[in-house]
Amino acid sequence: MIFNVASLLTAREGATRQLAIDDGEVYTDRHRFFEVSGPVRMLRTDRTVLVSATVSATVEDTCSRCLAPAVLNIQSEFEEEFEPANRDLMSDRPAPGAADFDPALLIDARNMLDMSDALAQALSLSVPLAPLCKEDCAGICTVCFANRNRATCRCDQNPIDPRWRSLAELGARTSNSTG
Ligand SMILES: [Zn+2]
Ligand SMILES: [Zn+2]
User: Which ligand places an atom closest to the C-alpha of 136?
Assistant: First the structure.
């Protein structure tokens, strides 16, 4: 997701470009986002390039109920300002503040704007905290650990609370000894 923005950097403030991402891939440490697609709008501000995008993507995660792979379709509204390393292309802009400098938001010296890392971060915020492989995932049996989407087990689905189990066993033993 690399765009050459030389013509935008030398254009007037307020100039725009309409671009698109089509079937791209971006990564974070945790996720691979693929089929990343959507329109991208770039706006030349006084000192930066403001990038807005509405992207959809597909990501594989783990179902929070059954622990099987869950393929998720996600959407993200992306908006970030990218600062050019070529400061001479911009009128008297000050040096980037060290405190808020983000290397993911730098347009390199060849005027290439790479939105991959920033977009991957934005997409990762759209991944649900408790992903599901499907809306009605039946989860895992808490007794035999069978995946109940694939197999129907015969376990009692209301097992005795472990805190009561020893008491129940004691009761069984007592009734045996008296019987
Ligand atoms: Zn599941
Ligand atoms: Zn079971």
Answer: 1
